[in-house]
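User: Run a structure prediction on this.
Assistant: Running it now.
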Amino acid sequence: MGAMDFNVKKLASDAGVFFSRAMQFTEEKLGQAEKTELDAHFENLLARADSTKNWTEKILRQTEVLLQPNPSARVEEFLYEKLDRKVPSRVTNGELLAQYMTEAANDFGPGTPYGKTLIKVGETQRRLGAAERDFIHSASINFLTPLRNFLEGDWRTISKERRILQNRRLDLDACKARLKKAKAAEAKAAAEHELRLTQTEFDRQAEVTRLLLEGISSTHVNHLRCLHEFVESQTNYYAQCYQYMLDLQKQLGRFSGTFVGNAESTSPPPAAASPPAVAAASLPAVPTIPVVPTIVGVPSTVAESVLNPNEVKPPASGTRKARVLYDYEAADSTELALLADEMITVYSLPGMDPDWLIGERGNQKGKVPVTYLELLS
């Protein structure tokens, strides 16, 4: 019976405290009761903490979208994390594309120009996919995890202590109100004693909460370090991707002559108005294009750098006809604009970049990119 009586009294006491807080809160909202205000510094700490929490949530969510655009996959990863189970390995889009390209190459024939290119591009896509996987893993550990730890750890502690502080503040203001209403000396003495106790509890809780809020500065320092690590991971990832694509470009450049005259092309290649020197050096000249022995008044070794198409004379024999595969807009006066399906005459010059030929159409003359042409016999 004694234990039961104690529990009943405790429940009654808790109900009384809850009712007192509810009354105080309601009267404050209605403007019928005074409210103890926190000092300006404390209010600034609260505002800074709220801002940190809100922006951390937004940055976390958007980074998750950046790393995993598929919402279904994000939900799956979230569930695995909550169940404390390892997230199963997932094939990246680049790796899946590599698989399809390799299978297509085997179907079309790995020895054909298209098949060879599919294999090389597929291998690069596989490497890009692997680099993406490493970047996602690194970013998750070094950036996302610290942000989540703050929201699920430190912030929950701060929120809990703030709720306790709010209750202590309501208790304090309720005591102040009761002291004002007390008439008898005995009632006033009891109210003053209760007020001293609640004031002590409020001050103690305010100090605890203040220390936690001031710790937000350390949170910013930690997140700053994590942000630097995220940027470093992202930089390494894009540098890898850039190098992989450069390597692929060089590999494809070595076989560019294979595709000249291939009527199966279905999309225009990028314009090569000023190809990099390293790529130009690795490209072989097209041996079937006739070469003009000399340019009037210009040494052959510098023919390309000072080429003026209007001064170029076609060879007496050996010029070839070419059909234009795609529209091409001339970059300057030395180039010849092209329209798809038109026929032009082409020939080469000593020292020219093998990616280019001299094209003639009536009285018009200029450089044209080889990859835009189908050379006719």
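DSSP finds eight helices and five strands in the chain.
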